[in-house]
Write a structure and sequence with these properties.
The complex is a heterodimer of chains A (408) and B (80).
Chain A (H helix, E strand, L loop, with lengths): L1 E4 L9 E7 L6 E2 L4 E6 L4 E5 L4 E6 L6 E3 L3 E6 L5 H11 L30 E2 L1 H10 L13 E2 L1 H12 L18 H22 L2 E9 L1 H12 L9 H15 L5 E4 L2 E4 L5 E3 L1 E2 L5 E2 L2 E2 L7 H17 L2 E2 H5 L3 E5 L18 E5 L3 E7 L2 E15 L5 H14 L3 H4 L3
Parallel strand pairs in A: 5-18, 9-10, 14-19, 19-20
Antiparallel strand pairs in A: 1-8, 2-4, 2-7, 3-6, 4-5, 6-8, 11-22, 12-13, 14-17, 15-16, 20-22, 21-22
Chain B lengths: L2 H15 L14 H4 L4 H15 L5 H4 L5 H11 L1
The chains are: A alpha+beta (408), B mainly alpha (80).
């Protein structure tokens, strides 16, 4: 029996609203298949399931907001019988599941019974307890979430509720809109980005480095490539920059991975989160997977596709949670340099400013050259300025020889 | 294809990339990228959309010069 739970899709997500199921009881599910669409503060995400199985029950009704980790569906594995799984479901499920459910789907009201903590002791997560202390709140008085646990978000919600002045004259509640309006989503997104970035600045001792990188060779190579390419497979500069970052990370693996529970874990591959701004404001950092192992054409296609899908709002859950480092490039309309805020639990962020024509000394003479300022924000708990500097120097050298790097 | 039809096709491709713009409010003689927030990926996606709509493959070297709607319409008119 497999419990499919709402996954966390990044440091800035602690709950999600189920929009729709893409599977029904009785359907066979393959590993990696999209099983539902969940709305987060940032975007609607196609959530994938990481097990093979057959859907036995859907536990959450579309329209319900649930915390990360909440069981959403029960799947049976190959060889298990329906009856066998049914027998195991009842004791295994938390008390959120009504015992007299007439339909296989739980009524929406059951998903967030704020007051109905399960019988027995309430649980308060360590992070929630710590935050409650900081905020001067009694964590035992904070209403628990759906699973009976008081989570960080519950504490912060309680703090907001306590801080907010009582509404002067409460207008009658308008009919609940089906989806968040643009303004609501925008406000919500600012809030989650703010929370994640505040956490980053609070917990991560950042250090910052910058290096000007001449792109004479790189821009020439790119122009040469694009001369013979049609518009549908024309190359952007960004995939070349990403490819070079990935190659440099191979030499400095301490910048690629996660810092969790007081220890660094190297990434299981070089998956680069690409900061993509949304047209209505805010940003999302979906990842390109295994950048070091893909050729430039594939990266170019995948990046364009990722940008298009991000802005159209059709991202997959793995793309949102897989990044082992983030690269932000402010593009050709942007400014000279960007000093990033690390996206926890990652340990580094590489930034590229706008490519500008600058006077540049070459071989004892002076010429005008395209130059980009590459920056590194990295976590002092894992690396230091010396290694970080070597990484940026390696990046600079790699960008001087694009043909070598992009050879399949 | 008339100039008006061509402009409509170009604006259609543009609003596909940047749905927030008010196409009627764009000044055709002013630089497009001063009026619409387009990064290099948006710009390339715009050229790809033009290619799909009009069958025109704009070379990289030419694309850089097509800074206004007027220039785009002129260029596409000649290429069709």
């Amino acid at each position: 029996m497999i419990e499919f739970r709402l996954p966390s899709l990044g440091a800035d997500m602690d709950e999600g609203k189920l929009l729709e199921w893409r599977v029904q009881p009785g359907d066979t599910v393959k590993k990696g298949q999209v099983v539902c669409v969940v709305d987060t503060a940032k975007a609607a995400i196609d959530v994938e399931c990481w097990h093979d199985g057959t859907v036995q029950r859907l536990l959450i009704e579309p329209g319900t907001t649930i915390p990360v980790g909440t069981p959403m569906a029960i799947l049976r594995e190959a060889g298990e019988s329906e009856a066998e799984v049914e027998r195991r479901i009842s004791p295994a499920l938390p008390a959120t599941q009504p015992t007299v459910a007439p339909a296989p789907v739980a009524p929406p009201a059951a998903a967030r019974p704020v007051a109905a903590a399960p019988a027995g002791r309430r649980r308060v997560s360590p992070a929630a307890r710590k935050r409650a202390l900081e905020l001067g709140i009694d964590s035992d008085k904070v209403p628990a979430g759906a699973d009976g646990t008081v989570a960080l978000a519950d504490v912060e919600q309680a703090a907001r509720a306590a801080a907010a002045p009582p509404p002067a004259a409460k207008a009658p509640a308008p009919a609940a809109p089906a989806a968040a309006t643009m303004a609501e989503r925008s406000a919500q997104m600012r809030k989650v980005i703010g929370a994640a970035m505040a956490r980053s600045k609070r917990e991560i001792p950042h250090y910052y480095l910058a290096e000007d990188v001449p792109l004479i060779e790189a821009m020439q190579w790119l122009a040469q490539q694009n001369m013979s390419r049609g518009v549908t497979d024309r190359l952007l500069l960004a995939p070349l920059l990403l490819k070079c970052v990935a190659a440099a990370l191979r030499r400095y693996p301490e910048l690629n991975g996660y810092y969790r529970d007081d220890a660094f874990t190297p990434g299981d591959g070089i998956h680069i989160g690409v900061a993509i701004s949304l047209r209505a404001g805010g940003l999302v950092t979906p990842a390109l997977l295994d950048v070091d192992r893909k050729d430039i054409d594939q990266l170019n296609r995948e990046l364009l596709d990722l940008i298009r899908r991000t802005r159209a709002g059709s991202l997959k859950s793995t793309e949102l949670s897989a990044g082992t480092i983030t690269v932000t490039s402010l593009g050709d309309q942007g400014v000279g340099a960007v000093y990033g805020v690390i996206y926890p639990p990652q340990v580094a962020l590489v930034g590229f400013g706008r490519v500008t024509e600058r006077p540049w000394a070459v071989g004892g003479g002076l010429r005008v050259a395209p130059v980009v300022t590459a920056t590194l924000a990295a976590d002092h708990r894992v690396s230091d300025g010396h290694r970080g500097g070597l990484f940026l120097a390696a990046l600079r050298e790699l960008l001087q020889n694009p043909a070598e790097l992009t050879r399949p | 294809m008339t100039r008006e039809e061509l402009l409509a096709a170009i604006l259609d491709a543009l609003t596909g990339i940047a749905p927030e713009i008010d196409a009627a409010a764009l000044a055709p003689a002013k630089p497009l990228r001063d009026q619409v927030d387009l990064d290099s990926a948006d710009w390339l996606n715009f050229l790809v959309a033009l290619h799909a709509k009009l069958g025109i493959d704009i070379p990289d070297a030419d694309a850089a010069k097509l800074t206004t709607l007027d220039k785009l319409v002129d260029y596409c008119g000649k290429k069709l």
